[in-house]
Structure prediction request, 264 residues.
Amino acid sequence: MIRKMTIVQARMSSTRLPGKIMKEILGKTVLELQLERMSLAKNLGQIVVAISENKADDMLQKHCQELGYEVFRGSENDLLSRHYHCALQYGANIVAKIPSDCPLIDPSVIDRVFHHFENQNSDYVSNLHPATYPDGNDCEVFRFEALERAYREAERPLEREHTTPYFWENPDTFSISNLTWESGLDYSMSHRFTIDYMEDFEFIKSVYEELYPLNPQFSMNDILDLLDRKPEIYQINSTYAGVNWYRNHLDELATIDEKMTKKR
Prediction:
């Protein structure tokens, strides 16, 4: 029996913008809005929010349970361990990873990644290695057996902290595949829909205030159309476009090059 689940990793202790996912937009938290959008996807299985055992995350557990979502608690810094034990507890054999800093993720993108996975004989499929979608539409899907192997074999700190680099860096061990944006465009370095800085929050808030009241199910293309009409919204966090965690590990990642990130 195939059991799919999507793990949303979340925490309160973000170093750049603490408590970012509990900030409110239109009377809802950033995390609530993301989970609401994700729930529109048709193919992602059960959603479980995986938080740390740190007491600071107690409020996240309470919030998610009040919203009706399952919560798993695991290692604070070893995200590979947290994902593995979460999948193990829920008996999943197909697992997706979506970070909680993607409150504008398009549910149709999630479905496309799952569909691509189901049509490939791969251990790991993503839309971010390399990325082409606007940053903040991150979705990775992998087999539990591959996750278990990575959990048992990965040793480097970045592989434990970021969960999936062990797949990328070992193509002879795992079969991997990537989904590119069907538009043929690459907005991964120019458009930033993720949240790490206050400017990101202000950008996301502006997008929701413009689009959500008219259509709570607004799409990625609706956002892009908005930014064309109101470039001042795009400018809010444009200085961070292309900035991601890769920038601190270019000397450690064989499958990442300097064109895939921007140092700020």
Notes: The longest strand covers residues 46-52. The mean pLDDT is 96. The chain has two domains: 4-188, 198-239.
